Every structure is written in structure tokens, then in C-alpha cells.
Amino acid sequence: MRGPIDRKRAVLGARNPATARVLGTLAVAHKQLDEPARALAEFKEASTVLFANTLRPVAGVEFARENLNRWTIGIASQYIDLLGQIYDTPLEREAQINAVAEAFRLADIARGQAVQQALTAAAARSGAGNPRLTDLVRQQQDAQQRVAALEVALTNQLAAPRDLQNAEGIGELRSDLDTLRKASDALRAQIARDFPAYAQLVSPTPATIDQARAVLRTGEALISMYVGVERTLVWAVPQSGAVVFAVIPVKRSVLCSRVNALRRSLNPSAKTLGDIPAFDVRTAYTIYETLLEPVRAGWERADTLLVVPDQCLASLPLAVLPRKSVDPGPEVGVLFSAYRAVPWLARTHAVASLPSVTSLVTLRGIRSGSPSRRPFLGFGDPYFSREQAAAAAHDSPPTVVVGSDERSSLVALRRSPPPPRDNGSSGDVLTRRTPTFDASELARLPRLPETAEEIRTIGRATGADPARDIFLGERANEKIVKTLDLASYRVIAFATHGLMPGDLA
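Given the sequence above, the corresponding C-alpha cells read:
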């Protein structure tokens, strides 16, 4: 494969992402051939270009951008896996590489870029009101497009038989490419110099451990997870003190099987509260023991855990994991009372999920809003169809009638229906993972009337004006969300169904 690399270097240059992708592919091959030292050297060389440009908008058509991103993510995943293999080995020291820091930086790339692309789009909109910035961005994008077109033309010329190649034309193409690349780089540098906040939003590099630690606040710790095919990597980054890292020999298939088993009791298809299956405390503790216990020294002293999950872990609220192995025992008295003695992680730490480390660093770098902003804006219990709206006009949400003594209360509670969830005909809407999902199927989702009280309760706690700041039922709609001045609020909450990435096309 040296031939393709040499051709890419000749046509595009050693610092071009396309050249780095070919070198990264060669590194993957050497890793699979069990040549870690050679693969590591090639990964290192490719990463200086490839992963520095991964989060930067790519010139060219949309499908080509998506394919390039998949390619780059695949290379990053293989590199991270190799870093996990060589961690704390003589090869790590011989290569003069910090496997912990390098894998942390690349994990955001391997976990995907959908969130960062959304931030990029938001940044582009935020800069639209500055004519000078808009003009510079347009010039830079035009230059990128022309560079992409010339690269294709030059590649086609060099792919022709030697006797049909136009040496003079090839020379002119190379000269024009060099000029345009310099112009594009100069425009990018000018944008970064004159509009640094915009440049960081549009073209951030993957966050490092030091950058992540710098934005942590008192009482916070960051937990980043990467779930590989053969092993899982976990970092615990406290605001101060040593970073704790663990390479956990658990396969993705095994870990996700445990998570899926646990979710069956969190999202049950039960007709009554009494039919909800027992929560598998033993499996929940196994997940805690596997992922969090090995890095406990890095997060235990914090009050709030900022967690960046990966793969199936994104569907599991870590707050429901117990910190000790306990048997709740038989239920006596109030429904679900056996779980009172379980030492849930939620009892000792607040847990917040983040889409990526880079998003934390990027968003905390944005200037704070006005202190005069209103405290809270909430939307809850939306209607998903005209039928739901019509029914709501005549019916009130069902309530549970509890008897006068404990026995009759328990009977009434066990026989009452659970809050509407993603059961029955709507269940497949939330579990489907297909690019052909029809958004109109959202009308099949059931209402969640208890979310109205959730929003009211938060509103009371934050001092919100119920008439002005709380939108429920028919008032919780897309039009109102898009027409309100959201920037005038400190906290915005949506209490409704949660769809996983991939649920919507």
C-alpha cells in the first residue's frame, strides 16, 4: 500500500486529510496483522493531520462528507483500541506516547460527530448577522470548494496512461492547487484571528484532558467512556488531582447485553404497576462494578458527575446503579419499598449526561448570558395527534384512588395502570433503528400526562411565572418553541418522550 500513499503525497501533499486517511488505513491493516509497533507509528503520523481536521467542515457534496467521516471514525476506533492494548507497556514508553491522553482526545471522534455538527450549524447561524464575518466565511468556503474540484481534476489526470497525460496541464493544476490552499488557509487564519469564538465553534479540535479539566467547576468530575468491540476504556477526570484511567476487558456485546437486560425493568410493557418486573439489582451492580468502581478514586469526592457515555450506555441512566451488592429481599408494605435500602449512585452524586467532551469545552467557552434572564421555561405533556387533543378536551388525567387502610391502598396501587410509556403499538417507534423511519409515526406516541406536574413542580421551585413560562398540552408545540425568545431564560426544560439517536431519519 505504499504505492497509494506515495501517489496521494505526490498529488495532494503529506498534510492533506486524504493522504492521512490512506496512511491510517495502512495502520489498521498492520494492527490486524499483529504488528503493533508499525501500526502505532503510522497511526501517529496520520493522526497529526487526520484527527486535527475531523471536526472541520469538509468541502464537497453531502454524501461524500458522510462517507469520509465514517472512514475517519473507523480509523480512530482502531487507533483507540491499539492505545488500550499498549497502555502501561514498554511499547508505550518506546513510542513516547501518552496512551491515556491520546485515547481520550480521540474518543469524541470515535463516538461520532452528530452533536458537533449541530453546534457547527448553530455557530454558522450565530455569525450570519456580522457582514464582515459572513463575507470571510463565504470566501473561505468558495476556496475549499475550488480546492476540492482541482484535487479531483489532478487525480484524474494522473490516473490516465502516461502517454496521454498532459505534463504542462498537470503542472498548472499543481500550481493552482498550491495557491488556492494557501489562500484558504490564510482566510481560515484570519477568521480565527478576528472572530476566535466563531472559529472555535465551527472548527474545534477534539478536547484534551487538560482542556476538559479547565472548564470543570467546583464539585464536578468528568467521566468519559469508550466502548470498543473487545475492551472498554474509562477516564475519571476530577477538577483537581490525578486522572484515573482503566482499560476494562469487557466486550461490547457482553456489556450491551447487560444494559439491555436492565432496561427491561426500566421500560416495561406492564398493564398494571403490580406487573412491573423486579429491577435486577445484581446486574445493575455488575455494571457499576465493571465501569465505575475501577476509576472511583477519580470521581468519588465530587458532588456532580458529568458523564459522556458511549454505545448502549447512552440509554442507561447511571444514577440507577447501586454502589454495593445488596439483595432488596421480599417486598413488605408499600409497593417498591424493598428498594429503599439500595445504595443507589443517585443518593451520593448528581449525574448529568453529556453528548461529548468537546461540546462541554465549547459551550462553557461561550460568554454567559445576561443575569437578568428569567429563571425557567418549561414544556410538558404535549399532544402528538389531533385525537389526543380532542380527548384531552373532555377527559382529565386518570388518578389512583387509594383506600383508607394500607391493605386496600396496596391493592388499588398494584391494580392501577402505570404512567403511559412506550408500550404496545408505540414500542417499535422508539426501538427502531432504520434510516427510513417516518416522522409521522410520532403521532402514535402516547401522552405522558404526569410530565405536566413535573414541569409545574420545577417551575414552582425556580420561581417561574406559571402563566408566562409554563406551556402544557396544546400550548407545548413547535410553533411556540420557535417563536419565543429562548435566550431570555436561564433554564429550558422539555418533559416528554426521549428518542435515541437513529430513531428519526
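Residues 347 and 443 are 37 Å apart (CA to CA). Try to locate this feature in the C-alpha cell string yourself.
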